[in-house]
Specification:
alpha+beta; 8 helices; 8 strands; globular
Length: 192
């Protein structure tokens, strides 16, 4: 992941674009496919690997749901922001259930809950289910809200720091079983 982030940041500077702006995001969307990211490379980025997750951070990991035989579809490599700890797992927002452009809009809306404006390793989101349920303008959470059980997480967590959230949200890493990503996106939009 570090190689990818460095390439993107250098390219943004070369283009004269400031990070976290609409122009930078539009440029990122057009360029991200040419960077050829892979799940395997992400999982080999040792400095980012964690044994556990922290509420308010963002992570990639492999997941095998307990009730997959009853599910219409599921993401085997989610991009999740845990929002509440539970004894056997956590409640989280899997950004892969919505289109990349909607992911950026969603992250922008959630940024009002940031613990700080540094956008570094110390920045987290202060959001929980109650907040999302009572904030009508943040409707994107509806298809993203999922419960993850610790026993069914099949890898370490790859932590994504806040300065990289936009980039991670645009990476084509979703790995849906039983449905195509376009089918999932279309059904998610019906839930808005």
């Amino acid at each position: 992941m570090a190689y990818l982030i460095n390439r993107i940041e250098k390219s943004l500077r070369n283009e004269g674009l400031a990070p976290r702006t609409d122009k930078a995001r539009a440029w990122l969307q057009s360029k991200i496919k040419s960077l050829n990211p892979s799940r395997t490379r992400l999982m080999e980025d040792r400095p980012r690997l964690r044994d556990s997750s922290i509420v308010g951070n963002m992570y990639f990991y492999y997941y095998d749901p307990k009730t997959k035989e009853f599910m219409k579809y599921y993401d085997k490599f989610p991009l999740v922001i845990p929002i509440e700890e539970h004894g056997d797992g956590f409640l989280g927002l899997n950004l892969h259930y919505i289109r990349p452009k909607q992911r950026l809009i969603f992250l922008d809306k959630l940024s009002e809950t940031n613990t700080n404006n540094r956008y570094d390793a110390s920045t987290r989101l202060r959001v929980n289910y109650h907040y999302l349920k009572n904030t009508s303008r943040i409707y994107e959470h509806t298809p993203c809200l999922k419960k993850y059980l610790y026993k069914h997480i099949q890898s370490k967590f790859v932590q994504i720091d806040a300065n990289e959230w936009d980039i991670a949200a645009l990476l084509p890493m979703e790995n849906f079983a039983k449905a195509s990503k376009n089918q999932v996106f279309a059904e998610s939009e019906e839930k808005f």
